[in-house]
Amino acid sequence: MLRSVSRPRLLRDFKGNAANFFLNRFGYASSTSRGGRLEGKVALITGGASGLGRAAAYEFIQEGAKVIIADINTQVGPQTALDLGPQANFVYCDVTSEAQVAEAVDFAVAHHGQLDIMYNNAGIPGPSIPPSIADLNLDEFDRVMQINVRGTIAGIKHAARIMVPAKSGSILCTASISGLMGGLGPHPYTVSKFAIPGIVKSAASELCRHGVRINCISPFVVPTPLVMDQMAVFYPGAGREWITEMVNGLGELNGAKCEEVDVARAAVFLASNDAKYVTGHNLVVDGGFTCFKQLRFPIPDQI
Ligand SMILES: NC(=O)c1ccc[n+]([C@@H]2O[C@H](COP(=O)([O-])OP(=O)(O)OC[C@H]3O[C@@H](n4cnc5c(N)ncnc54)[C@H](O)[C@@H]3O)[C@@H](O)[C@H]2O)c1
Questions:
Q1: Residue of 45, 71, 221 best suited for mutating to test ligand 1, as the one with most atoms within 8 Å of CB
Q2: Using CA atoms, how far apart are residues 95 and 257, in angstroms rounded to an integer?
Q3: Which residue among 48, 64, 87, 192 has its CA within the 20 to 30 Å range from the CA of 140?
Q4: InterPro entries, from UniProt (predicted)?
Q5: pTM (2 decimals)?
């Protein structure tokens, strides 16, 4: 089922003031397009109501795109579209339903006449307290795979249906650092995210012939609602500020933290003509975290 939301001409209040919200969150005060690298493009973003998807929607609009947010969150999703302004629409879409993914794609084409960018970003972490592999609930595993993997494949399939005949388009998928190393997330999440670069390479092998590019992004940990909710289970007594600071301190790159905007700008690059010869790639946005491990030599004066 599709639900589109009409937008007001001006930014509307969101928890007080949408402009302040975006200013605080992303460092910008307005979501009005200033033109740019995605001028005239139409983008569909699954999981675009919140977190990394919402940040990408904002950056895409800044670069001149029109954006359709496809999400199951019928409270936050329509409000995000309102806040983003007239270049944004919301459609209800559960990526586990192929029919709903197909409808969302068809909505983009019916509404804007084209689909240039498909960002398969919706994802869940699965149970917050990861059980031992010996106790793994396979129904939970299936659920994570349904959303993170099958949902991504459905998005690729239906984007290709439009992009292959058009002989152009850019498909993006959200992977994770959990898809590069074991032990960074629960088993089902890790398995699901390892699958994404594989899907991207497999699809790239065919889509290349049709002038369609496909890439994925592997972000480091960002304190989005997905991460904050998980951390709140691990640290029930802790306040949001403490959790945010703790998460922001997990990286390796001195003087920087991974923010939504870092991932969103990687997405802008891959979606745009700047990346016109980049396909099948996994763009890791992790401040070097998965590049190295250090040998734990004993400290000389302790031996
Ligand atoms: N935040 C991080 O640290 C991080 C790091 C690496 C990768 N990721 C990945 O980034 C993506 C976005 O996550 P986020 O951190 O922005 O989390 P988030 O929870 O803020 O956003 C995820 C969005 O996906 C939507 N969603 C969930 N199930 C859906 C479904 N079945 N159909 C459609 N929409 C659905 C949610 O409603 C939500 O709006 C996920 O794929 C996640 O695995 C996140």
A1: 71
A2: 30
A3: 48
A4: NAD(P)-bd_dom_sf, SDR_fam
A5: 0.90
